[in-house]
């Protein structure tokens, strides 16, 4: 055992990697060939109409519609669940449009 052997200093490298990864997470993921960063968006909360459709979309016949009517072939849903689903679709659409616009700008530069 050599008491005078030089120890590797990995503290600087670890700090550099930590700062680099933190910066990437804060700015978003970038394309390897371009300095542009892609923003990172949270996935909107999934509404119950998607996660539990059997509990939300109920045949109207189960709610008391006569069997021989056209209404008995329809599916009923509560207004609150429908508005929740509509909000989710709008959020997803906005995120997709943002990514499409960003990719379009990046592709025009090349």
Features:
single chain; 110 residues; mainly alpha; two-stranded antiparallel sheet; 7% strand
Explain what the structure shows.
The protein is mostly helical and 110 residues long. It has 4 helices and 4 strands, in the order H-E-E-H-H-E-E-H. A hairpin with a 6-residue loop joins strand 1 (29-30) and strand 2. The radius of gyration is 27 Å and the shape is elongated. The model has no long low-confidence stretch (mean pLDDT 75).
Write the layout of secondary structure elements.
Elements: H1 11-27, E1 29-30, E2 37-38, H2 48-51, H3 53-56, E3 58-59, E4 75-76, H4 79-109
Antiparallel strand pairs: 1-2, 3-4
- Euclidean distance between termini CA atoms: 58 Å
N-to-C series of helices and strands = HEEHHEEH
Compute the number of helices. 4
Helix content: 40-55%
Most strands sheet: 2 strands, antiparallel
Average predicted confidence as pLDDT:
75
Number of strands: 4
Widest β-sheet, arrangement of strands: 1-2
- Which residues form runs of ≥5 with pLDDT under 50? none
Helix-strand makeup class:
mainly alpha
Radius of gyration: 27 Å
Oligomeric state as shown = single chain
β-sheet strand percentage: 5-15%
| Anisotropy-based shape | elongated
In brief:
This protein has 110 residues and is mainly α. Helices cover 51% and strands 7% of the residues.
């Amino acid at each position: 055992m050599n008491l005078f052997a030089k120890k590797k200093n990995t503290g600087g490298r670890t700090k550099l990697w930590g700062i680099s990864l933190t910066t990437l997470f804060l700015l978003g993921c970038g394309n390897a060939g371009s300095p542009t960063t892609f923003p990172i968006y949270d996935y909107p909360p999934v509404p119950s109409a998607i996660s539990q459709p059997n509990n939300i979309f109920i045949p109207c016949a189960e709610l008391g519609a006569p069997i021989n009517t056209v209404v008995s072939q329809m599916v009923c849903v509560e207004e609150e669940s429908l508005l929740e689903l509509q909000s989710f679709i709008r959020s997803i659409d906005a995120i997709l449009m943002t990514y499409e616009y960003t990719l379009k700008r990046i592709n025009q530069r090349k």
